[in-house]
Amino acid sequence: MVDDEVDRFFEVLADPTRRQVVRLLGEGPQRAGQLAVATGSSAPAMSRHLRILLSAEVITDERVPDDARLRVFRLRQEPVVAVQAWLDQVQAHWQEQLGAFKKHVERKETS
Amino acid sequence: MVDDEVDRFFEVLADPTRRQVVRLLGEGPQRAGQLAVATGSSAPAMSRHLRILLSAEVITDERVPDDARLRVFRLRQEPVVAVQAWLDQVQAHWQEQLGAFKKHVERKETS
DNA sequence: CCAATATTTAACCAGGGATGTAACTATTGG
DNA sequence: CCAATAGTTACATCCCTGGTTAAATATTGG
């Protein structure tokens, strides 16, 4: 029942700005403000995107101990892995065909 | 510039019915009507979903030679592969960390 | 305590996307 | 030629998402 995670991931990643955020966070944790400028979004817009990504559990947030105004966001790996698994499953029948083809070739080679 | 393909894939896969369609077509080609009943959608709704998936080049269509009223749809593998590559890239820094950890363990083991 | 910084919340608005119904096209089969 | 089948298109509607502006909250630094 990890399907939920996949569903939320796709729904939330429909937005190009949020895809960019995921991309950026893929390279490492970032602050909200940094993400805003990097994506060319206003602060309020970014705040909402982050809230959506949080509620979909695609990212996590932490307050910086030194400066509690700052908030850093981190990409969670679980949903990424879940989506990869989903795509693998979609590809399953191609893999099978590939397997069948391999067997076919092998049979030819050994004959 | 394969990023376009990824963008369209995510935008189009935001809809749960279309995700279902992709899932179903992952198991093999299907007709429009079959997909409609399988997903519990009306014929017009499915027709629209398929048109969207076609324009995003996620699927292809073929007319059946015997009965030209029928149309079968097939999942294209290219976008699936492209999205997998995208996710791999997002995961890149985790892989690095994993690599670093492995090296760390190896160093410990050999010492 | 005050000014500046970082981010969130609220209120509002415009556009897009999904759906159902009904009508239409194309094709098959008797 | 007509009835049935498969699918598409058009239209009206609804809702949801995303953006903006302005104000609020929280925290830091002088």
Automatic annotation (TrEMBL), chains A, B:
NCBIfam families: HTH_metalloreg (NF033788). This is Metalloregulator ArsR/SmtB family transcription factor. CDD domains: HTH_ARSR. The keyword Cytoplasm does not apply. SUPFAM superfamilies: Winged helix' DNA-binding domain (SSF46785). Pfam families: HTH_5. InterPro entries: ArsR-like_HTH (IPR011991), HTH_ArsR_DNA-bd_dom (IPR001845), HTH_MetalResp_TranReg (IPR051081), WH-like_DNA-bd_sf (IPR036388), WH_DNA-bd_sf (IPR036390). Residues 1-98 form the HTH arsR-type domain. PANTHER family: TRANSCRIPTIONAL REGULATOR, ARSR FAMILY, TRANSCRIPTIONAL REPRESSOR SDPR. The keyword Disulfide bond does not apply. Keywords: DNA-binding, Transcription, Transcription regulation. Gene3D superfamilies: Winged helix-like DNA-binding domain superfamily/Winged helix DNA-binding domain.
